[in-house]
Amino acid sequence: MARLAEFQGKQVLAAAGIAVPRGEVARTPAEAASAAGRLGGSVVVKAQAWTTGRAGKGLIRFVESVEDAEQAAAAILATQVGDFPVTEVLVEQRVAVKAERYAGIILDDRRRCPVLLISARGGTGIEETAREHPDAVAELPLDVVEGLAQHAARELWRRVAVHGEEQRKLADACVRLAGVARQVEARAAEINPLVFTDDGRVVALDCRITVDDAAVFRHPELGIEVARELGHPPTPLERIAWDVEKDDYRGTFYFLQMRDGFSRGQKVVAFHGAGGGGSMMGMDALARHGFVVANFCDTSGNPPASKVYRAARILLSQPGVDGYFGTGSGVASQEQFHSARGLVKAFLEEPLAVPAVVRLGGNGEEKAIEILTGFTKGLGVPVECYGKDTPVDTCAQHLSELIARSSATAARLPQREPRAAVKPYTFATPTGEITYDHAVCARCESKACVSACVPQILQLSEDGMPVLKVTLEEAQRGRCTECLACEVDCRALGAGGGHVRLPVPGLDDYRRTRGLE
Amino acid sequence: MAILVNESTRVVVQGITGREGRARAKLMRDYGTKVVAGCTPGRGGETVDGVPVYDTVLEAVEAHGGLDASVIFVPAPLVKDAALESIAAGIPLTVLVGDRVPVWDVLEIARAAERAGVSFLGPNTLGVLSVGKGVLGMIGGRAESARAWFKPGHVGVVSRSGGMTSSTGYYLSRAGVGLSTLVHVGGDGIVGLPLPGVVRLFQEDTETSCIAMFGEIGGSQEEQVAEMMVNGKVTKPVVAFIGGRAATSGVRFSHAGAIVEGGRGTHEGKVAALREAGATVVDAFDALPAAVAGVLEG
Question: Which of A52, A208, B9, B256 is the most core-located residue (most Cβ within 10 A)?
Answer without folding.
Answer: B256
